[in-house]
Write a structure and sequence with these properties.
The longest helix has 20 residues. The chain is mostly helical and 197 residues long. The strands form two sheets. Strands 1-2-3 form a three-stranded antiparallel β-sheet, with helices on one face. It has a two-stranded parallel sheet with strand order 4-5. The chain has two domains: 95 residues, 3-Layer(aba) Sandwich (Rossmann fold); 101 residues, Rossmann fold. Helices cover 46% and strands 8% of the residues. The protein contains nine helices and five strands, in the order H-H-E-E-E-H-H-H-H-E-H-H-E-H. A hairpin with a 2-residue loop joins strand 2 and strand 3.
Length: 197
């Protein structure tokens, strides 16, 4: 959601570095996220921006937008409403973000703090951005460090979270660990349709 708002501000040629401009426009775009794991998507005013919000341009701008209090209040409330709706429907939901376990859903029973070394994160992100010749692991690591510093206030590990260091783990191994943690907390996910196929 923060990335979607950032993309919209950039697309509207608004100054995302100016907190007053960001605050004034935080509620203007209609941001929608799907909660169906089979077809995840993000849209802004009806435009699918799922891929567009993962560009370096958005990544390097999102911290400035996410630090604006009016933005945080608006989007945290939106995220809490989505989680509440899923819970009221008797469905489970997996949410990810720097402050999900501490601010958005501190009451969540299963919390995983997923981490990896700087080098591993930079290599993975650089691979995701393979189409961008400027996204070398070195450049990506530097950009990542700047974002980590800017987002430090929102990146604390919840006291009741399980820390998973994925530095040397494959994606499947990470998934298996998360499923195991959920099962140990009373939410057996093994065999759930979202985790198969």
């Amino acid at each position: 959601m923060y990335r979607a708002l950032t993309w919209w501000l950039i697309s509207q040629k608004l100054d995302f570095r100016d907190p007053a401009t960001v605050a004034r426009n935080a509620r203007r775009p209609a941001i929608e996220v799907t909660t169906d794991p089979a077809s995840p998507s993000v849209s802004v005013d009806g435009t699918d921006v799922t891929g567009l919000i993962r560009t370096r341009e958005v990544s390097n701008a999102v911290s400035a937008v996410a630090s604006v209090p009016e933005v945080r209040a608006h989007l945290v409330a939106r995220q809490q409403a989505i989680l509440a709706s899923a819970c009221a429907a008797g469905e489970g939901i997996v949410a990810e973000g720097r402050d999900i376990g501490t601010v958005v859903a501190p009451q969540a029973v299963v919390k995983v703090f997923l981490t990896a070394s700087e080098d591993a994160r930079a290599e993975r992100r650089s691979a995701d951005l393979a189409a961008d010749p400027g996204a070398t692991p070195s450049v990506t690591r530097d950009e990542q460090k700047r974002r980590d510093t800017a987002d430090a206030a929102q990146s604390a590990m919840a006291s009741d979270a399980i820390k998973v260091d994925s530095t040397v783990l494959s994606l499947q191994q990470v998934i298996d660990l998360v499923v195991q943690v959920a099962g140990e907390r009373g939410f057996p996910l093994a065999g759930h349709p979202a985790w198969t196929g």
